[in-house]
């Protein structure tokens, strides 16, 4: 990981000295113009003596004529420049020749599997419908995590639709420093996988302690617990509201594709609530535990929790899926 990522706005460098430099203040002589004032400015001064040998000089200045003010205008001065807009940042940061290096990578294994899957779908139209509906719901689910992460100024490393990458897109940016105010989707790697077993969104994390403002930190583990709860649950909420909107807008049986998208959306929202690693429910449960107790669980507990959750998920999804099928049959419309 590039070290520049640690210099986000609001970062406090522990090695930086907080020394206060001595500033030489020019002496002001009563009734005489200071060298820091333009010649065109008229100035009068009054000096008041106070106790303890302290004197205070009060200056009255009249603005110089417009013709004389113009000679002090410096177009190269930073304060004379227009504000730095998002479009300017996009042009400078992403679209300049040295930064405009888009990389599209093809994974041979993933491409072969993807072509084989498409061929199978063409021969089996019903599975093609299921595959398309699943892709829509998984993409919406991951975009929910992505959007919530962007809301809390997290740096998202990768968003993947399905597993075993076939095609990946990433724009190589020479300047890898992080500015949350101008973060772009092009800072994230986007992946299309071949095996339709779900998807994932990975966030940048750090083993370093938080230094500075957590709101401006790019690392998700620096965010407060309530923010991580929203990020972890955003995908589930997107799937649930997808089901709810389609259920209200379209009567059941009006469209085979709509029914398929609606049913898969509900299934994904329910399955991801299960507290089994790596489903979203496990992250939500851990975050709720942190909110209630006020501290994070130990690393040993987390290792046991992940192993147990993965084992239970394998059992319910591959070894004995009848339990999950009966549960879904009770819930699906």
Helix content: 40-55%
Biggest beta sheet attributes:
3 strands, antiparallel
Uncertain regions: pLDDT < 50 for 5+ in a row?
Answer: 25-41, 66-73, 76-87, 94-98
Order of helices and strands: EEHHEHHEEHHHHH
What is the radius of gyration?
30 Å
Strand order across the biggest sheet? 3-4-5
Q: Kindly report the average pLDDT value.
A: 77
Brief synopsis:
With about 325 residues, this protein is an alpha+beta fold. About 45% of the residues lie in helices and about 15% in strands.
Question: Keywords for this structure?
Answer:
2 domains; 17% strand; 333 residues; 9 helices; single chain; alpha+beta; two-stranded antiparallel sheet; three-stranded antiparallel beta sheet
Architecture overview:
The protein contains 9 helices and 5 strands. The protein is α+β, with helices and mostly antiparallel strands and 333 residues long. It folds into 2 domains: 3-87, no CATH class; 105-331, no CATH class. The protein is globular. 21% of the residues are buried.
Set out the fold topology.
Blueprint: E1 42-50, E2 54-62, H1 66-70, H2 86-93, E3 101-106, H3 108-123, H4 125-151, E4 156-172, E5 189-203, H5 225-249, H6 256-271, H7 280-293, H8 299-319, H9 322-331
Antiparallel strand pairs: 1-2, 3-4, 4-5
Helix pairs in contact: 3-4, 4-5, 4-6, 5-6, 5-7
């Amino acid at each position: 990981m590039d070290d520049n990522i640690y210099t986000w706005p609001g970062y406090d460098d522990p090695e930086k000295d907080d020394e206060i430099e001595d500033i030489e203040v020019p002496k002001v002589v009563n009734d005489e113009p200071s060298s820091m004032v333009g010649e065109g400015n008229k100035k009068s001064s009054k000096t008041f003596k106070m106790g303890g040998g302290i004197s205070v000089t009060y200056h009255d200045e009249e603005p110089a004529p417009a013709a004389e003010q113009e000679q002090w205008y410096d177009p190269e001065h930073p304060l004379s420049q227009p504000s730095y807009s998002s479009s300017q940042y996009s042009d400078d940061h992403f679209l300049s020749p040295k930064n405009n290096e888009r990389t599209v990578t093809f994974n041979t294994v993933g491409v072969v599997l993807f072509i084989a899957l498409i061929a199978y779908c063409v021969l089996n139209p019903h599975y093609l419908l299921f595959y398309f509906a699943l892709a829509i719901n998984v993409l919406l689910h991951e975009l929910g995590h992505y959007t919530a992460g962007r809301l809390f100024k997290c740096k998202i490393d990768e968003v993947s639709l399905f597993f075993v990458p076939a095609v990946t897109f990433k724009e190589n940016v020479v300047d890898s420093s992080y500015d949350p105010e101008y973060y772009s989707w092009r800072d994230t790697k986007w992946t299309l996988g071949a095996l339709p077993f779900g998807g994932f969104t990975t966030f940048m994390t750090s083993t370093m302690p938080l230094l500075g403002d957590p709101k401006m930190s790019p690392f998700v583990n620096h965010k407060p617990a309530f923010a991580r709860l929203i990020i972890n649950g955003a995908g589930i909420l997107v799937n649930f509201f997808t089901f709810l909107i389609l259920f209200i807008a379209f009567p059941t049986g009006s469209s085979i594709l709509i029914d398929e998208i609606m049913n898969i959306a509900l299934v994904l929202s329910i399955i991801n609530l299960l507290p089994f690693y790596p489903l979203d429910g496990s992250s939500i449960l851990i975050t709720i535990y942190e909110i209630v107790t006020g501290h994070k669980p130990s690393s040993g507990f987390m290792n046991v929790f992940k192993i147990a959750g993965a084992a239970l998920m394998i059992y319910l999804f591959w070894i004995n899926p009848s339990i999950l099928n009966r549960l879904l049959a009770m819930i699906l419309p």
